[in-house]
Structure formats: C-alpha cells, structure tokens
Design brief:
By secondary structure, the chain is α/β, with parallel strands linked by helices. The chain is built from ten helices and 13 strands. The chain has a nine-stranded mixed β-sheet, sandwiched between helices. Strands 3-2-6-7 form a four-stranded mixed β-sheet. The relative contact order is 0.15. The N terminus and C terminus are likely disordered.
C-alpha cells in the first residue's frame, strides 16, 4: 500500500484485479480454438405444474415451450463463438434428425464443423430436460456409448482435427464419456497438437483422466478430482494433496479444479496454488458451466493471458452462465461487465 493511501477492502481489491483482465478480451476475436469431443443436442421442454397425475404420483407438466441448444463439445465451441472467437468442431453424430438439427444450430452460431463425422452405428446424443418453475423435473438421455475403435471413423475424425489445427492456438478435449476418447486416440491428438505448438485444454471424465496425460491444463470439477484421486492420497478432503497429486499425474503445466460456490483452485507446475473466489451473484443452473470454463480458459490463453489470469477470466464467465436456466453461453460485453464488477444483463 502506498503511504498516505487507504488500504483497499478485499472486495475492492478483487474488483480492481478483475478489471485489469479486460484488455485480454479485446484480443478474443483473433483466437482460433479447435474443439474435439462428445457432441450432443440439449433439448428443453419447459412448462408448468398445476396437478398430480391420476395415473401415478407424479406431476403433470403442461408444456409451454420447447427449444434445442448445442450441448457437450458443441456447447464448448458455442462458448468460443459467443465471445467472438473462431471455433472448429470435431466429433461424431448419428445419421438422424438430431444430427441434422445439430448441424443447423452450428451454422447459426458460425461454428465450422469439417471434422464432424457421421457414424451410422449410433444415434446423435440428445439430452431432454423437462423443466417446470425453474426446476428440472426429469432428464431423458438418448445415446449409445460405443467406444471408438481404430478404423475409418477414427481416421476421418483425426483427419478433421489435423485439417483444423493450423493457425489455432488451443485444442480442447471435451470428454463426456460417450466413446470418442481412448488412450491411443488422445496420444495421437497430443502429438499432433505439439507439432503445431498448440496448447491442450482437457476437460476429462474420471475414467479418462490418465488418457489426458501431457495436456497443458486439465479442468476437473471438485467431485471428479476427488474420485480420480481416491486411493492415491490419504484423504480426498485435503484439496491441496488432491490437486498436487493430479497435477503430477497429468504431467502438464497446470490443473484447474472447479469448486462450485467455492470458486476454483489453480495448481501450477512451479508449485503456486491460487484460490479464485466465485463471482456468481445467483445460481439457477450449473448445466454447461464446465464447458464455459474450458472454452474461456482456452480463449484467455489464446489471447496471451497467463494461466492464472485466464483462470480468473473463466471464473467470471462461469459466474454469468450459472445465473441462466439451461445450457448457456456468455458474450464479450457480459464478460466485460462481470470483470468490471458490474451486473451483466441480457437483452
């Protein structure tokens, strides 16, 4: 503190630090991010409940509206284009109406998808959420989790990534355990990314964490981190021990554990640990928040931010989307407002 000046309050200090991050947003339009992973369609059925069914003790939802949104890896790519970056999506879809709908949604959101491969042995993954009075009543999943094996589909998918990587700054591996990722496939992707000097952001499910070894940074949530570390540390309640263990296993530059209302914890290879408090003002729905974190972290790194500053920007973005019901993205003006400590609004 400079002599003669008043010490900043913790809140004022946080706001000042966040405001200093906004210049990175000006470089977002020059970012190119390649996303590979499990793509899906999020289907929302929204209505109201006024009675219980006479057939069974369940609520009757009177449907008022339906909508379809990009989900999974496609939502990661949507987060990139919502922030005015360039996104290329690679993944598998079925030869069905849902797959065609997904392509239409991608075109609307200016997402390139030369690496989107049609697999006629599986349907396009669709998650249907029935919501009443801002609460999810039930979710219905249409999917087949067939592991991708060596063959023509794998070659087509890899070729799509290979075509997309030139000129990109980051490659995001968006894993929803639907069959796209295996140890051998991720290894090939890692080698390809390194040849192009592209940073790798991995958002892995528990079973595939060790497949992501060598990624620049991984972004598990708190529960996933505890499950991955179980049996390897004396207590999964010890976040420091969990984070350091997982970073050692990852052999990357950093590990970012998202912790819901407790914010995030960033573990870096040089031993630094940064706890980043949440900036969410209210939480309606955490659906897709992990997608936002992975996408905005990549955008921050592509814009030249340090790992910790990119994590702070991603934290602010997550604070915006959890205040919206359903799968959501954040725009640059909303993120700028969040970083400035203002309340971002929707038009």
């Amino acid at each position: 503190v400079v002599r003669g000046e008043k010490s900043l309050s913790p809140l004022t200090s946080i706001i000042a630090k966040m405001s200093a991050l906004t210049p990175h947003l000006d470089r977002f339009p020059s970012a190119k991010i390649v996303v590979v992973g499990d793509v899906m369609v999020d289907h929302y059925v929204v209505g109201q409940v006024t009675r219980i069914s006479p057939e069974a003790p369940v609520p009757v939802v009177e449907v008022q509206e339906e909508s379809y949104r990009l989900g999974g890896a496609a939502n990661v790519a949507h987060n990139v284009t919502s922030l005015d970056g360039s996104a290329v999506l690679c993944g598998l879809i079925g030869d069905d109406e849902a797959g065609r709908r997904l392509k239409e949604l991608l075109e609307v959101q200016r997402i390139s998808f030369p690496g989107l491969v049609v697999d006629d042995s599986r349907p396009t993954t669709v998650k249907t959420r029935i919501i009443a009075h801002h609460q999810q009543m039930v979710r219905v999943d249409r999917e087949i989790k067939i592991p991708l094996t060596p063959g023509s589909l794998q070659r087509k998918l890899f070729a799509g990534v290979e075509q997309a990587l030139p000129g990109a700054q980051c490659l995001i591996l968006s894993d929803y355990a639907k069959g796209v990722f295996s140890e051998w496939f991720v290894k090939d992707l890692m080698q390809l990314a390194r040849r192009h000097q592209v940073k790798i952001i991995a958002d892995p499910k528990v079973a595939n964490f060790d497949c992501m070894k060598g990624a620049t940074v991984a972004t598990p949530n708190h529960l996933e981190a505890m499950q991955i570390a179980a049996g390897h540390v004396s207590s999964t309640d010890d976040l420091m021990a969990v984070g350091r263990h997982l970073l050692e296993r990852l052999e990357g530059e950093a590990l970012l554990i998202t912790r819901g209302e407790h914010g995030m914890s960033l573990f870096e290879r040089d031993g630094r640990v940064n706890d980043i408090p949440t900036v969410a003002k209210q939480v309606f729905d955490v659906t897709g928040a992990g997608d936002t974190v992975a996408a905005v972290l990549a955008m921050g790194l592509a814009a030249g931010a340090s790992m910790v500053d990119a994590a702070r920007i991603a934290n602010a973005a997550a604070g915006v989307v959890v205040g919206i019901v359903g799968t959501a993205t954040v725009k640059r003006d909303e993120l700028r407002a969040a970083l400035a400590g203002l309340s971002p609004g929707r038009s």
